[in-house]
Structure formats: C-alpha cells, structure tokens
Write a structure and sequence with these properties.
about 120 residues; mainly alpha; about 80% helix; rod-shaped
C-alpha cells in the first residue's frame, strides 16, 4: 500500500479546504449583495430619488446620491433616523466589501477564488 493512504488523505484535505473557502467567499458576497439591496431600498424611500438605478457596488455614487437628497430634503425626526440607518448600511457595505476583497486577494484563498471565478468587488 505504501503512499496511497497518504495521497488520499492529502487529496481529501485539499478538497475540503477548497469547499470551505468557496463557501466563505460566497457567503461574504451574499452579505454584500443583501446589504446593497437594503441600501437601494433606503434610497428609494425618499420622494426625490433619481429614476436611474445605481450600478451594483458603486458605494461612492450611493453616498453622493444620498448626500444630495439629504441637502435637498428638510430636516425632521424621520430624516435623522433615515440618516443613521443609511450610515449604518454604508459602514456594513464598506466592511463587507473590504472583507470580500481581502479574502479574494489573500494567498492560499486567491487560488480557490481564481478557480471558481471570484473577482474583487
């Protein structure tokens, strides 16, 4: 028998590692997508939202759009709550994007990311 059990064990380890990393990357991307949808919904709640949709993942564009809406809308209690909610969503988005991009670029994980076609956001 010799080396056959060693190669089978090593192959199983590599296979499980690849599955785990792929699941982790997909989970982070799904978290980013979910938070992005929440942010789009938050922007659509305003009456003067522009009709064109934001490009997916365009955090700078979303932030500029919200700042312009915030300047044009009068200040009230509901607007303050919307501002806090928006800022929380924006921070979660930035954190999710950073974690995903960091995972995709880090060395043993980047091989799995390239294998499954994951690209930085």
């Amino acid at each position: 028998m010799g080396f056959v059990p060693i190669f089978i064990t090593l192959g199983g380890f590599v296979f499980l590692f690849i599955l785990l990393v792929h699941q982790n990357i997909r989970q982070k991307k799904d978290a980013f997508s979910s938070t992005w949808k929440d942010l789009e919904y938050q922007l659509q709640q305003h009456q003067k939202t522009p009709p064109d949709k934001l490009a997916p993942g365009d955090l700078e564009g979303a932030e500029k759009t919200y700042r312009s809406l915030q300047k044009s809308a009068p200040e009230d209690d509901g607007g303050q709550m919307d501002s806090e909610t928006f800022n929380e969503l924006l921070l979660r988005l930035k954190r999710s994007r950073y974690e995903y991009n960091n995972l995709v670029r880090m060395r043993p994980y980047s091989f799995v990311a390239n294998l499954f076609g994951h690209r930085p956001l």
